[in-house]
Amino acid sequence: MSTEDHPAPRSLAEALRGRDDASLAALLRSRPDLITPVPTDLTQLATRAGTRASVVRALERLDRFALQTAEALAVSADPAAYDELLGLMAGDAHDPEVTGALPAALAALREQALVWGADDRLRLVRTARELLAPSPQHPSPTGLGPSVRESTAGMSPGRIQEIVATAGLPSTHDSVSAVDALTALFTHRRRMRKLLSEAPAESLEVLERLVWGPPYGQVTHDPAPRLRWLIDRGLLLPTAPGTVVLPREVALHLREGRAHRAPEPLPPVVEPAATHRPQVVDGTAAGQAYTALATVEELLKDWDEGGPAVLRAGGLSVRDLKRTAVALDLPEPVAAFWVELAYAAGLIASDGEADERYAATPAYDDWRERPSAERWARLAEVWLTATRTSGLVGGRDVKERALSALGPGLDRSAAPEVRHRVLGLLAALPEGTAPAADSVLARLRWERPLRGPHGPQDTDDLRSRLARWTLTEAELLGVTGRGALSAQGRALLGAPPGGTPAREPKRPALAGGPTASEGPGDKLPVHHSDHRASAAVLDPLSPAEQAVATVAAARILTPLLPEPLDHVLLQADLTAVAPGPLKRPLAELLGVLADVESKGGATVYRFTPASVRRALDAGRSASDLHAFLAEHSRTPVPQPLTYLIDDVARRHGHLRVGAASAYVRCDDDTILNEILADKRSAGLRLRRLAPTVLAAQADPAALLEGLRAMGYAPAAESAEGDVLITRAHAHRSPPRTPPAPVPDGPPVPDTTLLSAAIRAIRAGDLASTTPRKPSETSPLTPGALPRTASAETLATVQAAVLTGEALWIGYVNAEGTASQRVIAPVRVEGGFVTAYDHTADEVRTYPLHRITGVAELAED
Predict the structure, then answer these.
(1) CA-based R_g, the chain, Å
(2) Are 308 and 317 in contact (CB under 8 A)?
(3) Is 198 exposed, middle or buried (0-12, 13-18, 19+ CB in 10 A)?
(4) What sequence ranges are listed for the domain Helicase XPB/Ssl2 N-terminal (predicted)?
């Protein structure tokens, strides 16, 4: 097909106009900010694609090689031919890896509308060129300086002629031809080699220091001979008083044509650190999952009667976080992770009362009743999609305010994408393979160099920290085991077993570059030589797909978790051993009757007088406790434990404490005599009111604790004289909605939205580009709506009904949105016109008073 059939586009809008729907869909999917809101036509889409904010966002989402390609275009001619770009990327040696990778990189830039034009006229969008082009304030990422023409723009004609003469070139009649001659010299390999062969060794050392950037240097008023030799021949050109620059053409000669010192066409390989049997990985991860559930339950149990107070600015205080870490027997960063995960899952929230505190939510009670695997899957799903980042706790925000757990400022919108990508890299490895953390970070930096608009950020950037936290948190949660992705972790991502991602990236191929054009459904050519480096990435799942994947993960985990037990092993040393997780009723009552002494694969409980008294205070009788232990013990109830329960029960409630400030009464006055005679009771300030009643200055709670410390077992009583049963009060917050993740920009549009948006854009573009007949009453102004009087509008529409011709109209809808449409009127009556709308491809009815004007279409 000849070029006359498809002339080269003269603008980005024309280039977009030549795309098919699949190509436009790929653009809008990769840059969703372009359809928020939906542009009226392709011209507006192109304008929006060239805005600074949108271009910066698109550049930050390029991989390193695509970004290097864009940087090379920024220092090339505008427009540039593909061969020139190839020379800048592959150099004079024509690196085969770079040569093979460049077409796909260029196609990616075209897909995102950062580059447009045919292969012989490649254009980087102007905003991207401004962001990436070199300047004294913002040197180019390539390390190249301005061209000879740019560097000599303010130089006097006489000085330019002096440089030309010293360089051995014939003098010219004007500065333009002189600069052209100097540029031709610097871009001619053989002539430049001859010129540099005459340079002093000290001058060549200066060039070597500047060749890879920065290209600027400082000179004195009287430069040294080695600098004077370079300045006289234009190899260094002055840009400001005391500053010289190495021209771009000279640097490229010294670099052998390459714009980058080290082009990176291939992503770094994720190196394995260790390999384990998949069964070992899954078993280890399942153990971690069980520990995760136990940790969250212990956290919520610790806060069951009301958790820590909420700071005025929101969040936990440093002291409360330390207390929580001590209660969980964990380091503070790990405790912060579990607190934040429970909060993100909606299990804890502020109670909203006057003395505001954190407490479990009603959702926690529902979550606790579900099977263990489902509870874990819920936590894992929340972690995968949450934007709150516990790793930031203890740091400072931009205003140097401390970041606290459960407080504001912990959301990082990039967190879900980084977590998903890290796990995706693990999923691409063979089963049981744990990656080297440094190689994962290197791969992520290649995929998203995370550069600002004028240069790379430091190596310890947020994305790298998020990746490190992801590897740690995945191990804590049981998504990984021994550093390798577990079976339930693969299911959570929607990846099949075996280390092969389930789905290829959804990137429709585009015609562009020297590769052959593929169909809309074909994949872009894979240019990587190492299949491990080019493993396909997993697309994030939609909410519906994620729900299915979560169920699958729970199903895989279920047989790996230990089955809850209904028994313990009682021992003669007043301990009970739970050889595994206990069923909930057994665990709850045993937790009241005994104290946890140690945890691990088996939990050890110890019975003490205080723990038995706690069970009696909760309303249990001695016979209830004996029956409970006999029912749930696989070993005979030891005699010492039976004696302990009977002894505490015999003395429990013998003393009664009420409010006077407080009083003690007992039917046995000898016990009261013993209390009064005991020196430890002096602090209670007891006084006998009657043979069986003592009064105290202390309140009832302090009196109870004081008598228990003395070895007695008093019971509290009500005003009516009944024994008060003290059960733990489970404090709950009102129903709360879990914190919503903060999106990283506009969401990626689904297929339905893309189809509707593309149809609307094309319709608007048809209306704005359809040729119209010029009219004296309605002059044609590009982009403006037609304006005609109401009588003229009505007459033109009625005439079109009779002739069957199409019209161009301006229309303002009920919301005040103006648009241009091409219609074929069918009927006019009652102040409405019924017409076939070519832009919407359907019959519609329009009120005549909302039509701003009409114009006839020009004949083809």
Answers:
(1) 39
(2) yes
(3) exposed
(4) 568-690
Q: d(Cα 302, Cα 328) in Å, to the nearest integer?
A: 9
Write out the DSSP string of 696-749. Answer: ESS-HHHHHHHHHHTT---EEB-TTSPBPP------BPPP-PPPPPPPSSSPPP
Contact 12, 112 (CB under 8 A): no
Give pLDDT, residue 761: 84
Report the alpha-carbon distance of residue 631 to residue 568 in Å, rounded. 10
One-letter amino acid at 155 equals M
Assigned token pair, 217? 């240097």
CA distance 806 to 856: 7
Give CA–CA dist 753/739, Å, rounded.
Answer: 26
pLDDT at 785 over 50: yes
Q: What is the DSSP letter of 219?
A: -
- Average pLDDT of every residue of the chain: 84
Query: What was the pLDDT predicted at 751?
Result: 85
pLDDT in tens, 246-294: 999 999 999 999 999 999 999 999 999 999 999 999 999 999 999 999 8
Q: Which amino acid type is present at position 211?
A: V
Amino acid occupying residue 526: V
Q: Average pLDDT of 810-835?
A: 85
The encoded tokens of residue 10 equal 């003269």
Residue-wise pLDDT tens digits, 164-184? 899 888 888 888 999 999 999
Return phi, psi of residue 500, to 5°: -120, 120
Per-residue tokens: 749: 């549009």
pTM exceeds 0.85, yes or no:
no
Beta pairing, strands 662-665 & 693-696 = antiparallel
CATH hierarchy code of domain 771-856: 2.30.30.100
Question: How many whole angstroms separate alpha carbon 119 and alpha carbon 86?
Answer: 11
Strands 662-665 and 243-245: unpaired
Among candidate residues 337, 435, 441, the one with its CA nearest the CA of residue 382: 337
Hey, where are the domains in the chain? 12-132, 273-292+362-504+541-557, 569-651, 656-716, 771-856
The Cβ of residue 824 has, within 10 Å, a number of other Cβ atoms equal to: 15
Question: Helices marked H in 133-277 — which ranges?
Answer: 148-151, 157-166, 175-186, 189-197, 201-210, 225-232, 248-254
Indicate the Cα dihedral angle 722, 725, 726, 732, nearest 10°.
-110
Cβ 367 vs Cβ 329: under 8 Å = no
The reported pLDDT for the residue numbered 664 is 86
- Tell me if residue 111 falls in helix, strand or coil: helix
Which pLDDT score is estimated for 539? Answer: 72
Span 819-830, pLDDT tens digits? 778 888 888 988
pLDDT score of 610: 87
